[in-house]
Write a structure and sequence with these properties.
This protein has helices at 4-27, 158-186, and strands at residues 34-36, 40-42, 52-60, 62-64, 74-78, 81-90, 99-109, 114-125, 131-143. With 187 residues, the protein is α+β, with helices and mostly antiparallel strands. It has two domains: 4-31 and 160-186; 38-146, no CATH class. Strands 4, 5, 6, 8 and 9 form a five-stranded mixed beta sheet that branches. Strands 1, 2, 3 and 7 form a four-stranded antiparallel beta sheet that branches. A hairpin with a 2-residue loop joins strand 5 and strand 6. Helix 1 (4-27) runs antiparallel to helix 2 (158-186). The chain is elongated, with a radius of gyration of 25 Å.
Length: 187
């Protein structure tokens, strides 16, 4: 025979334990040393004759820098494709990761009205020699009133992670609440 108060305590205890586990797991991650945030177009919607650029944010183990041989940045336009290649440094050893977070804008130029695809790559020297090329993004650019480009939304920033956590928490609360209501109706 169960006591009347114990029927309601069990789902609440399960919910609290589940919430505690989710909270602990969300904070249980490995710190990332190297990072480059997704590049964004500046401004996101441009008029004909307006200078367009690409904004980069990097730090800790990655940094965009001037190329010692002045070969970069490389900007090539072919039809409706704009290709930007930036020079950077990338280190794997945490001892060498000393770069402060930095945001910079690389101008692309002005463009005629139309839709463009901006392909952004970076190159960095390898430890044993040679160069690594890494694709950072392919962005849609609309110049001169062709409609707004697709939104460039961060998916791994603190706000997005908080929204994900709150969403999971609300879904689990609803699930536990409906289970509690079903159990109380059956009894």
């Amino acid at each position: 025979m169960t006591r009347p108060g114990s029927q309601m305590k069990q789902p609440k205890q399960k919910f609290l334990i589940f919430s505690l586990v989710v909270l602990i797991c969300s904070g249980w991650h490995v710190n990332a040393f190297a990072y480059i945030d997704p590049p964004v177009l500046v401004p996101p919607v441009a008029d004909v004759g307006q200078t367009i650029g690409v904004q980069f944010t990097a730090g800790i183990c990655d940094i965009f820098a001037s190329d010692p041989q002045d070969a970069y940045p490389q900007i090539t336009v072919s039809g409706n494709q704009i290709h930007l290649v930036m020079f950077s440094f990338h280190y794997e050893d945490p001892i060498e990761c000393v770069f402060p977070p930095e945001t910079a804008v690389q101008p692309l130029g002005t463009f005629d009205a139309g839709r463009y695809v901006v392909v952004i790559d970076r190159v960095y020297p390898e430890v044993g020699g040679g160069v690594t090329t890494e694709r950072l993004a392919e962005l849609q650019l609309v110049v001169g009133g062709g409609g707004a480009p697709p939104a460039q939304l961060p998916v791994s920033g603190p706000v997005a992670l908080f929204a994900l956590f709150v969403g999971v928490l609300l879904i689990s609360m609803r699930r536990f609440h409906s289970r509690t209501m079903d159990e109380s109706i059956k009894r």
